[in-house]
Amino acid sequence: LCSSATAPTNCDMPADSELSTLLNRRQAINDALGEGRDVQPQFKNVTRSVYAEFHEFSRRQIKEYEFTFNKYDEGRDGYLDLQELKRMMEKLGAPQTHLGLKAMIKEVDEDDDNRISFREFLLIFRKAK
């Protein structure tokens, strides 16, 4: 058991521990990006947490979004670039202008790589609600 006389520990504050883990992971990603390294292979398990992060979506919805994302990720690199996003929007019956697509990417592109990861793809749906 944890004692209240001691400094807070993981068992006292599980949310703080989880936040600390997330912040450390984000810092590692930022460090890797700053050094010009590819972070994708190191952080593949980040996808696991989309269920927790996007709690407003059911697991079924997230799986459907993932299926759609993977269907249009023609390069199989884990990202949708401008052309892949354009084709997806056209096939889904919601064509966008070039500038509209660029604005859509810019709005959710947290790492400024001009393409959309699956997590960023989910942000589009979050912002649309």
Provide tags for this entry.
129 residues, Recoverin, domain 1, single chain, 2 strands
Structural description of this entry:
The protein is globular. The relative contact order is 0.09. It is 55% helix and 3% strand. It folds into 2 domains: 42 residues, no CATH class; 72 residues, EF-hand (Recoverin, domain 1), CATH 1.10.238. The protein is mainly alpha-helical and 129 residues long. The protein starts with 13 loop residues before the first helix and ends with a helix. The chain has a two-stranded antiparallel ribbon with strand order 1-2. One of its GO terms (molecular function) is calcium ion binding.
Q: In angstroms, what is the radius of gyration?
A: 18 Å
Low-confidence stretches: 6-10
Count of helical stretches? 6
Superfamily at the CATH H level of the largest domain? EF-hand
Apparent shape: globular
C-alpha termini separation = 43 Å
Helix content: 55-70%
Percent of sequence in beta strands: under 5%
- CATH fold name of the largest domain, please? Recoverin, domain 1
Query: Main β-sheet, in a few words?
Result: 2 strands, antiparallel
Instruction: Give the class from helix and strand content and strand pairing.
Output: mainly alpha
**String of helices and strands:** HHHEHHEH
Can you identify the CATH class of the largest domain?
Mainly Alpha
Protein name: EF-hand domain-containing protein
Domain EF-hand: 60-95, 96-129
Keywords: Calcium, Metal-binding, Repeat
InterPro entries: AIF-1_EF_pair (IPR049025), EF-hand-dom_pair (IPR011992), EF_Hand_1_Ca_BS (IPR018247), EF_hand_dom (IPR002048), EFHD1/2 (IPR040365)
